[in-house]
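task queued by scheduler; priority normal; single chain, no ligands, no partner chains; default sampling; output format set to structure tokens
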Amino acid sequence: MAVVSRNITGLLLALAAAAPAHAEQAWNWNLGVGGSVFYQSNSGGEQSPEYTDTSFRPNLQVGIERAINERWTMGTGLELLVEDAIDWGNSGNLLMWRIAEFGYQVSDNWSLSFYGGAGRYYRETSAYGYGLGAGAQYQLNANWALSFELSYVGTDTSINDAVPFKRDKFGWGSTVLRYRF
């Protein structure tokens, strides 16, 4: 995990060094609202049975990005898959921080993205992990876009020395309407 962290940090530093060459490009905030088909699997363990579930969840996103050059963008953002918006302790909500998100402009309207980051699953025992994903985005006009994404997060409770130890795996496909400021 430390090697991955060093590689990601090195990549972000290299991109940050390249950013001043495109200083005329501003940072753009974006907000997104959509829905996700959400799959969850728990490995079970000695004291709990294996568990799987598929459901539909609202998807909320906020992020910031900037152009690196005429084709590439870089950014970061948060994605929240909501099961219970009121109770956060054992809500089943899943939060993913897209630490690094890169976009590639394929044509005037279409772009591709890929991202990696960290996940937090709100359950009776805190669960943390990693996440990754990819997507395509269609630009409706200068501010509005429709994105289609596939994401994965793997979490576990070993950071808390929890008994019973649990691993959760999540996969979801999303359609999100985004507004760029």
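post-processing summary
- The first strand starts at residue 28 and ends at 42.
- Helices lie at 2-18.
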